[in-house]
């Protein structure tokens, strides 16, 4: 699975360096210098991890962390320009999961990011399999039926990845919403989940009455009907 990473770093050279390093390790990276842009992007299309500097030009980074933590369960790593115990405590108290002070090696930041992903249940394993005449390559985010490529949005791929990571397991609506959107309150997203499932069924030529891919359990959730994962 390709993990989606949002980097908030105002220093251009450092921002480019982090993007380059994480892309090299097969992360899908979005980067910005501004906290407001990061907040809007993370709430509309939640990444798997946020890495934010504590010195942002437009808003207080602690405010960004607090708003993200209040609205989502996204793991957050804060980076500081120097070792400052008080700043570290404030960031952790506000909602950051980890704080790292410069200078540090990129490989350490990578290791801490992967550790947060593991604790959040988003392992970076490759999930590839074939089912119902469709071949899914989750590493490349490519789905094909015969000679035809099926098109899915980033949110739809995240839903497919969530299903494929738990084949044959009945997933509740609330669990799916938490894992797809990363939000703490699932209720406002239930209509969005139903709409998302409808779009996936349409793309997969699946039907709720004779499902091949997604089985509905009314009043509870959904089950992915693939038998298991097959290496491609």
Which structural traits does this protein have?
232 residues, alpha/beta, Rossmann fold, Arc Repressor Mutant, subunit A, 2 domains, five-stranded parallel sheet, four-stranded antiparallel sheet, 8 helices, 22% strand, elongated
Summary?
By secondary structure, the chain is of the alpha/beta class.
Can you describe what's shown?
- The protein has eight helices and twelve strands.
- With 232 residues, the protein is α/β, with parallel strands linked by helices.
- It folds into two domains: 4-119, 3-Layer(aba) Sandwich (Rossmann fold), CATH 3.40.50; 128-224, Arc Repressor Mutant, subunit A (Orthogonal Bundle), CATH 1.10.10.10.
- The strands form three sheets. Strands 2-1-3-4-5 form a five-stranded parallel beta sheet, with helices on both faces. Strands 6-7-8-9 form a four-stranded antiparallel beta sheet, with no helix packed on it. It has a three-stranded antiparallel beta sheet with strand order 10-12-11.
- Helix 6 crosses helix 7 (173-181) and helix 6 packs across helix 8.
- It is elongated and about 60 Å long.
- The chain starts with a strand and ends in an 8-residue tail after the last strand.
